[in-house]
Amino acid sequence: MNHLQDTTTLHNGVKMPWFGLGVFKVEDGDEVYQSVKSAIKLGYKSIDTAAVYKNEEGVGRAIKDSGIARDELFVTTKVWNADQGYDTTLAAFEESLKKLQLDYVDLYLIHWPVEGKYKDTWRALETLYKEKKVRAIGVSNFQIHHLKDVMASAEIMPMVNQVEYHPRLTQQELLNFCKENNIQMEAWSPLMQGELLNHPVLTEIAERYNKSTAQIILRWDLQNGVVTIPKSVKEDRIQSNAAIFDFELSMDDMQKISSLNEDKRIGPDPDHFDF
């Protein structure tokens, strides 16, 4: 992991960038368009959106106008809870594809484990994968028991699990399970929506490395083998977030950061979420 374009290889051989841009809560239209355009201009290859973010159209327009060849980019989107189920997922995917103005997406995820529906949704993702409309399929916000449930009847095993992950929520057991089962873990809200940026332990480490607190956290993600997609709409922050490939955290500092874990979530608990 020495470069913004460095990739991890998913269990089906597809290469996924370690680092990308997330667009959660970024407004459709000019805001998301400029954010994605800036990221691609700065060398980002991975863009992560979702149907429920309601900004797929702006993301698609920015990709189209970027001038970058489609096969050089890695685009992720997700099926929302209300659209889960076999036929409804297939229809939702076509809608996302149309909004993104793409022929395929690189990664399609089930956004949340909706009880009684996510297994049918997974079958739909397998169909899309077999039809080569997606290059990789995975899940988001799945706990170990959800993953085991899907895997028990799956023809194709999940390739990615995107979850809330930051120094206050290290999810070590889940990370270990994913690694053991060749599922790439990916972090959303890696900076805990800014709540960790003034943490004394992190600011002390940041000063020693002459880096920002955000850069320290994002580097910690990568060194733990977790793909990460911080969100920003400011070009200077998008650039700064990616300046994490010219240093390495020591094992001691990695452990110090991990020891901040409190199993504290900023988003919903997947086991107690009102779907």
TrEMBL record:
UniProt name for this protein: Oxidoreductase, aldo/keto reductase family protein
Organism whose genome encodes this protein: Fictibacillus macauensis ZFHKF-1
This protein's record includes keyword NADP: yes
Coiled coil regions in record: none
One MF term in the entry's GO annotations: oxidoreductase activity, acting on the CH-OH group of donors, NAD or NADP as acceptor
Assigned keywords, A-Z: NADP, Oxidoreductase
Hydrolase among keywords: no
Site (Lowers pKa of active site Tyr): 78
Binding site for substrate: 111
NADP-dependent oxidoreductase domain boundaries: 29-262
Catalytic residue list: 53 (proton donor)
Family: Belongs to the aldo/keto reductase family.
InterPro entries for this protein: AKR, AKR5G, Aldo/ket_reductase_CS, NAD(P)_OxRdtase_dom_sf, NADP_OxRdtase_dom
Pfam entry (one): Aldo_ket_red
